[in-house]
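Write out the bound-state structure for 2-oxoglutaric acid.
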Amino acid sequence: YPPRRHYAQSIPDLKVLVQFESKISQDLTEKYLADDSPLSTGSEIRRQVKLYLLDFYEECGFKKIEDTKNQTCLPAVRNSICVYRLFKRVKYLLSDLILRRSFRLQLGGLWRQIIFFFWKNNWPLFRDLEFVAEGILRLHLIHDYDLKQFANGKISRKFTTNCTLSSAHCYEISQIALSLRDFSSAIEWLELAKEKVLVDHQASSSFIQFLLWNAIEKHNGYFDEDLFLDLEPTFFNREISHVPQDSRNATKIRNIQLETFKGNNERYYKDLNFLRLCSGQTQPVNNESELFCWYELKTHLSLTIGPMKMEFLSRDPDVVQIYEVLHDKEMQPILDDTSSRLQPSMVGGKPSFKGNKLRDSAPVSVDKKTRTALVSWYFGEVDMTVSQNIERITGLHVLERTAAEDLQIAAYPLAGHYGSHLDAFSPALGNSENMQRIATFMFYLSDVDEGGSTVFTSQGVAATPVKGSALFWYDVYTDGSSDWSTTHGACPVVVGEKWAANKWIHYHDQFLKRKCGLKRIERFRIRVNDKLV
Ligand SMILES: O=C(O)CCC(=O)C(=O)O
Ligand SMILES: [Fe+2]
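---
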């Protein structure tokens, strides 16, 4: 069997679940509100159905089930907090309902539909909750929002949702933070749980107090040991005392680090730079005056009738964003073909080869910290069109069998990201010599409501996903060695979904098109209408 796809990882699967839940919730609402409702007044089962439905309607802001009459509520579940609530609701409230004899007796038809769906599609697992919680922690880590506002639905500066997190949810998330040894987050979430429990009574406040002591002890214990752990971004700058809210007055190490290394482009700090760029703080680009847009007419004859809109995002290394490269008629077949074949991505493995093409990294690890996207390869008809387009724009060989890899499709779920990395292979990976990547041509196959930028961490550049546009840059110096200044990554998706496609172009097939350099630090340049500008 292929590894199971979790709902939390896979947008297509999540959509199926959301659609099904909306349908049965509407049916359940009708039954609940009907004059001759099978759910008799005052019964335990009616009370439970109400609990479930109110949870379901939260995203639409309905406070009473009666309010839903003649209104439509189709929860879109486009942010992590609502998805967390969805999994909890289905995993616990819905499964509780169908386990009841009275539910089966009174609502047999619905009961059978639910059983059949989950027999075919699996129940959400605890791992799903964990995935989403990890995403919530990642979003919070990057954006450093006010935690209370965040848990009350203020997902970002721009976006607010009706879904909120209760004291119980906050302590659950804190425990997942603790299991990731993210002490500063764990303590913050517990402090919030402690505050919330006084109002919502969703958990035991003495239990939360106990967990808080435990987390504080752990944090302080590591801090005390002086193992340099206190330099990790998941700590506070001092021991936390047991005084309520003490963590609010402490500074998080990562904030200190960010402050200290502001504007510092050293490789070691690229991960910090990733945080900063993803949170929307772009650095002033040194060579801003060299950035411009233009219409490209010259790389191919066909462009004289339909020039390409190009924009420099960075110079030396050159990174361009090219707009309206693909249209729905090319993108839709790619999405249709690949959605059912998406698999968790493997990174950090040795590349393996089948025939002449790189298939995938060897499945040594599914590193949830580095890349949380599902991927698949596309072999369908429009690949030719896509490659032709790339040839016209870049002037590189792409169509020949060995000249480029197949199109790799990546689907990012909520909070899905890709930590900073190089696309080029390091020589230490051996084997890859003939397969070195000269350049990346990466398409955005969707817009993203918020987040999901591609950031070049040593350049301080962030590219915004625009459906149909593409990024293009050279990954290596002219001698084929990795250009570290092309280090890049994908920021977590805050709201919505993100689809991208990579075409990696090989170094060796370009010797007629791109002369290799003799000087080591020489870069390929992107020409502007055939001129070096
Ligand atoms: O999705 C993105 O924005 C970047 C993806 C990427 O860098 C990759 O797949 O190698
Ligand atoms: Fe990449």
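---
Residues 11-125 form one domain.
The chain has a mean pLDDT of 87.
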